[in-house]
């Protein structure tokens, strides 16, 4: 009976060792299976999982707008009072519902495409209608002194008088966002008298993109090779700031780590940005990593010296010490447009304190991306930006003579959101999450049970062997004594 027990324990040791070895072997085998799957399905090539989601987003993408209504226009213009603003919104539009227009598949493992733009109003997701009236800054009147030299300001003043223009105007949401005929531009015989925050938009694109398909190197998939047929920008006149880095943020190369930064290019702000890892999360049963745009991305040159080349007007920016705001006039036909996070989140106190009605909140106003780390797919995004127009005093322009100092005036902030839908999430879980999780469970189970069985049986075998040897010794000794 003791022999049978020892044999059983020896078998347990062997089985435990086999399970432990098998679990260990499955780790590189599992990694190879996942690697092969990603190499096949993550490339931008017809028929792959990545291509189907890349060519046209399966999940709806919305752009929400909050416009700033001016509550004290007369006091600002006549007394130089601090602007008091209140946001009105959201006014929601569905965007990116059109598929990419493929131009060419290139020999250098890149693909060229255009992304058609369109916006469809969603009244059921909006606070009101496009016909709602907003008291807003008069874009042309406020921008003119910054676009044209002081010697012309007397003429501009006459033009504004003839057009009966004020510093502020009442316009509909539709007009402010998508364009209206401006009487000042019309009187000035402008080639295009239409102006608006996002004019022109529908039936346009933001240029030709060349991105790597990943067919030769999966670590380059979706990375931008060229934009507008150029490998670098021409706005900033600096090698660093003119770099086109990363992807368009809809996806990234696979196998992300929480220590790395995610780089992406945005034509809306004429530059590349980066996001840093913040925390792990779970989105519809899929593990994701959340990356956010940190304060230093738009910080002043004092905090982040890398941003030195984005500062173009040292007078307005107080010798480039203002942070949290980006001057993009250089790519906006010299219009004094400045980009910030909503409600001047992370901006210098001097900027935010010049306006009443700003209430920055990290949860509501930061930009984040939830990325599935194995594939690099962005499963949820909230791109949040604020558009501001800078206007300053002018002794020769009546509507600006009482303004005391340059003001970064908020016009609108937007939240572009997209979240993986139920159908796509189920497909994603079935094709990747569940198999990877099951493989991990099998590996862990084999290693844990194998280790436990091996150790317990080995300890029991040692103890049994000791007892057996002791019993044998006592038996032999007893027999000798009898003899």
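Sequence proposed for the structure above (483 residues):
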């Amino acid at each position: 009976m003791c022999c049978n027990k020892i044999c059983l324990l020896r078998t347990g040791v062997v089985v435990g060792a086999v399970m432990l070895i098998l679990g260990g072997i499955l780790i590189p085998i599992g990694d190879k299976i996942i690697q092969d799957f990603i190499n096949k399905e993550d490339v931008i090539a017809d028929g792959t999982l990545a291509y189907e989601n890349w060519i046209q987003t399966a999940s709806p993408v919305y752009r929400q707008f909050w416009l700033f209504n001016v509550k004290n226009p007369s006091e600002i213009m006549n007394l130089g009072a601090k602007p008091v603003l209140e946001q009105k919104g959201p006014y929601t539009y569905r965007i990116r519902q059109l598929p990419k227009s493929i131009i060419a598949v290139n020999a250098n493992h890149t693909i060229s495409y255009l992304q058609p733009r369109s916006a469809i109003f969603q009244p059921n997701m909006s606070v009101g209608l496009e016909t709602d009236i907003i008291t807003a800054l008069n874009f042309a009147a406020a921008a003119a002194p910054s676009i044209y030299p002081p010697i012309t300001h007397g003429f501009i003043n006459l033009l504004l008088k003839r057009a009966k223009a004020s510093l502020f105007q009442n316009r509909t949401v539709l007009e402010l966002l998508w364009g209206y005929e401006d009487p000042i531009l019309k009187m000035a015989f402008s080639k295009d008298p239409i102006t608006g925050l996002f004019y022109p938009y529908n039936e346009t694109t933001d240029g030709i993109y060349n991105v790597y398909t990943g067919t030769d190197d999966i670590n380059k998939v979706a990375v931008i090779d060229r934009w507008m047929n150029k490998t670098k920008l021409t706005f900033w006149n600096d090698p660093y700031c003119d770099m086109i880095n990363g992807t368009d943020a809809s996806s990234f190369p696979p196998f992300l780590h929480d220590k790395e930064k995610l780089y992406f290019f945005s034509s809306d702000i004429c530059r590349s940005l980066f996001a840093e890892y913040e925390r792990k999360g779970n989105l519809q049963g899929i593990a994701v990593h959340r990356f956010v745009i940190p304060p230093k991305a738009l910080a002043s040159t004092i905090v982040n010296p890398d941003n030195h080349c984005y500062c173009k007007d040292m007078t307005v920016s107080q010798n480039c010490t203002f942070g949290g705001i980006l001057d993009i006039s250089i790519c906006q036909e010299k219009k004094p447009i400045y980009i910030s996070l909503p409600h001047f989140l992370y901006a210098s106190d001097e900027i935010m304190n010049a306006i009443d009605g700003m209430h920055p909140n990290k949860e509501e106003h930061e930009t984040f991306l939830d990325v599935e780390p194995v594939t690099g797919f962005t499963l949820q995004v909230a791109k949040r930006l604020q558009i501001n127009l800078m206007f300053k005093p002018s002794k020769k322009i009546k509507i600006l003579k009482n303004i005391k100092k340059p003001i970064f005036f908020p016009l609108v902030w937007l939240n572009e959101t997209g979240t993986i839908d139920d159908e796509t999430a189920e497909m994603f879980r079935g094709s990747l999450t569940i198999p990877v999780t099951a493989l991990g469970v099998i590996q862990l189970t084999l290693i844990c049970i194998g280790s436990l069985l091996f150790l317990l049986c080995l300890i029991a075998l040692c103890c049994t062997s000791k007892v057996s040897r002791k019993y044998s010794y006592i038996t032999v000794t007893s027999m000798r004594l009898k003899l």
